[in-house]
Amino acid sequence: MRLVLIVLATVGITTLVPHAASGQAAPRLAGLGWLAGCWERTAGTRVVEEQWMRPRAGLMLGAGRTVEGDSVVEFEQVRIVERGGRLVYAAAPSGQPPAEFASIAASDLAVTFENPGHDFPQRISYRRVGADSLVARIEGLREGRVRGIDFGYRRASCT
What we know:
The protein has 159 residues and is mainly beta. It contains two helices and eleven strands. The protein has helices spanning 2-15, 19-22; strands spanning 17-18, 37-43, 46-52, 59-68, 71-83, 86-93, 99-106, 110-114, 123-128, 133-142, 145-156. 15% of the residues are buried.
């Protein structure tokens, strides 16, 4: 049993390798091609949609909206670029100025961005869970406690 736990821990640790510790080249935007497309989640009467353009010319663009009934409750514009050997995620929620988060870990199936100085969240991650689903996660300190929220998405039609 102990060997199984050690193997599982090792696999989990190597799945998402920090850039500095990996000794590998900096992450490339092209490695996030799996995020391209349309994604949707339904939570009660709310529908949350994200749409990502494929990486091209050093830029990946995303947009999201949360709809309840006939009303848009929230919206967000996002861009991911390569800068200084890292990927940078810049999110502008509901018309606010963009907040930037630098990548701290990346693999073929996941990416994590961090901005320790941001109010909440301080970390944003996307993890692919098969061809047709992904989990987005936001986490950080809020009211003195570490909090995290997972958002499960299914691939959706872009029409």
